[in-house]
Amino acid sequence: MQSTIIRTQAYVDGQWVSAASGKTLSVTNPATGEHLADVPDMSAEEASAAVEAADRAFIGWKKTTAKSRAQLLKRWYELILDNQEALAQLLTAEQGKPLAEARGEVAYGASFVEWFGEEAKRAYGEHIPSPSPTSRLVTIRQPVGVVAAITPWNFPVAMITRKISPALAAGCTVVLKPAEDTPLCALALAALAEEAGFPAGVINIVTTANPVAVGDTLTSHPLVRKVSFTGSTPVGKHILHQAADTVKKVSLELGGNAPFIIFDDADLDAAIKGLLISKYRNAGQTCVCTNRVYVQRSVMDAFIGKFKAAVAGLKVGAGDQEGTEVGPLINRKAIDRVDQVVKDAVGEGAELLLGGQRSDQGELFYQPTLLGGVSETMAIANQELFGPISTIFVFDEEEEVIERANNTPFGLAAYFYSRDIGRCWRVAEGLEYGMVGINEGIISNEVAPFGGVKESGTGREGSKHGIDDYLEIKYLCMGGI
């Protein structure tokens, strides 16, 4: 694998470094099992050293003007787009998603760098009318400090830029721990940031095969003032506990159990198109993927016929193969879990309508699968699937389906299709989710706030709100006037 952006060392304090122990972490292609590279397996002590480097860099970085930070972010954005194809090829190689999706992710990831470069110049304070004629009251916003960012493997470019960009725009410095399955994209982004001209220590990338020890160091370190994490709800809860002793700011984007509701007045063809994109992109391995498909009884038969044909037509294969729509799962643990979930559901009475087996495309491929006759009493209805499985539920009334859709501790994303404007408002307001797609299966973009409610997290990424968690509000009372 040849590319000028590939790096196989960690990036700390402006230096490309190996682990002090000499230990490495092997990175493989999930589609083929091919060995791609070895990166440093860094220790908790080395993560602590990266935090200290970020803290030293913060002294100077926080004093830079918003305009100069914006210019650096703009240059980084341009370099990412200049290297879009190389990044997409790397992303597909280490993560597995189809190349077309990888290209889209790189553009999506770059959009956050552009957006927050623009927002850097809009971190406004305010003037407050004073109750006293001899005082003046104002607020200013200042960077919170060193940020620890922990990102997942399913979007190894976009999840990084969505966290690092607002931090840098605000004047914070960052220590990032990428997922152990997909560190190469993080290191490539750091190489481009270095080329863009970011000072030493402002961005630090720590790779490791021991995510618990390194993660605990980052989330409990007294010099870290903000933690941003995307991953599972149990790990997110652990991070909250870790951050509590030093009262850090914490933003969490956690698990989901997204419902996709199709009402009898929906445009059925449009709904199926939206559902296919929502459910099967990245082989179902996204936090906002549809988990539960609710179909109103009167259109169930028509839906099953059309959807089954559409899913059967999906091409499974390696991400770099022409026309691939469903790539591999990320690792052995993931495919074993998906296979067991399907077997358990069938054992509980679900009807296997399509798929339900490992694919002959390779060790980590699973057939796009449809399960009918699913109910909320089954285990599959109450867990995040993270695989190419559609579970289909039937419902009768609007109020009923809202109640059933909300009957989960999660509240990240929800979707529904209807052409009744009154129903659109009622259902959108009734769903207990941070994001709702109405007649739309893809909802993410840089200008809108991304995040969940309940046990799906806290805080928002993207949009004008995405920079808020990286800033403190300081109140200035000026007397004697």
UniProtKB/TrEMBL annotation:
GO terms for biological process: gamma-aminobutyric acid catabolic process. Gene3D superfamilies: Aldehyde Dehydrogenase, Chain A, domain 1, Aldehyde Dehydrogenase, Chain A, domain 2. SUPFAM superfamilies: ALDH-like. Keywords: Oxidoreductase. One of its GO terms (molecular function) is succinate-semialdehyde dehydrogenase (NAD+) activity. It comes from the Bacteria. PANTHER family: SUCCINATE-SEMIALDEHYDE DEHYDROGENASE, MITOCHONDRIAL. This is Aldehyde dehydrogenase B. It comes from Marinobacterium lacunae.
